[in-house]
Amino acid sequence: MQNIELADFYNPHADDSSYVPSDPTQDDRRFPIGSLYGSNTPKPKALSISISSLWCGACKSEAKTVLPAKAMAKVSCRLVPDQDPQAIERLMKAHVARVAPKGVTVTVTHLHGGKPWRADLAGPLFDAARRALAVAFGREPVITGEGGSIPVVGDFERVLGAPVLLVGFGLPGENAHAPDEWMSVESFEKGMRAVACLWEELS
Questions:
Q1: Which of 3, 10, 81, 83 is least surrounded by Cβ atoms within 10 Å, i.e. has the fewest?
Q2: Using alpha carbons only, how large is the chain's radius of gyration in Å?
């Protein structure tokens, strides 16, 4: 993973102690704590810019040596609290225009975005989840930072004024969102047990 070269992309306010580094050996303060897990395997994540798709030139089976006249890329930016999606959109457009080679015309089209959200690590809901996970998995949960793209989560909290809890049961190596994504039966069963325990804790 390389450092992001987009100017002003990094969160200027991520200077507190409540974070998990993207690299456990470095104190880079790029992503705050936010999730509960029932295993002892931390899954730290960092804010990122990812290229998910590329289109360029002829994609059919015939051979061609003609250089393509157009190229396209689909890019996603994973944000953290205190970053504004509209501000990041403006920065991305400015950056692409600045690095475009001479004679090349570039266009950046914004598809959609969502405001970042951070879990509240205090309160009865979070405490109940900790107890439920401990019962289901037989050990205390590890609290660690985890990135995700679920914009409606922040909307629930802001619009409804209700606390939100996200609990993940997938483990590293399960190829999330890939064609061969999978989940172990053990994690699935313990996850069901944890949710049942959570209802009991909240009742």
A1: 3
A2: 21
At 90, which helix (H) or strand (E)?
Answer: helix 85-99
Domain identity same for 124 and 85: no
Residue 119: closest CA among 65, 164, 84, 88: 164
Q: Are 81 and 116 in contact (CB under 8 A)?
A: yes
CATH number of the domain residue 164 falls in: 3.40.630.10
Q: Outline where DSSP puts E strands in the chain.
A: 35-37, 48-56, 71-78, 142-144, 167-168
Containing structural domain, residue 163: 35-46+115-202
- Provide φ and ψ at 75, rounded to 5°: -125, 140
Per-residue pLDDT 10s for the chain (203 aa) are 556 666 666 654 444 444 444 444 443 333 333 333 333 434 444 567 888 888 887 777 777 778 888 889 999 888 877 788 888 888 889 888 988 999 999 999 999 888 888 888 888 999 999 999 999 999 998 887 777 778 888 888 889 988 888 888 888 888 887 889 999 999 999 999 999 999 999 98
Total residue length of the chain: 203
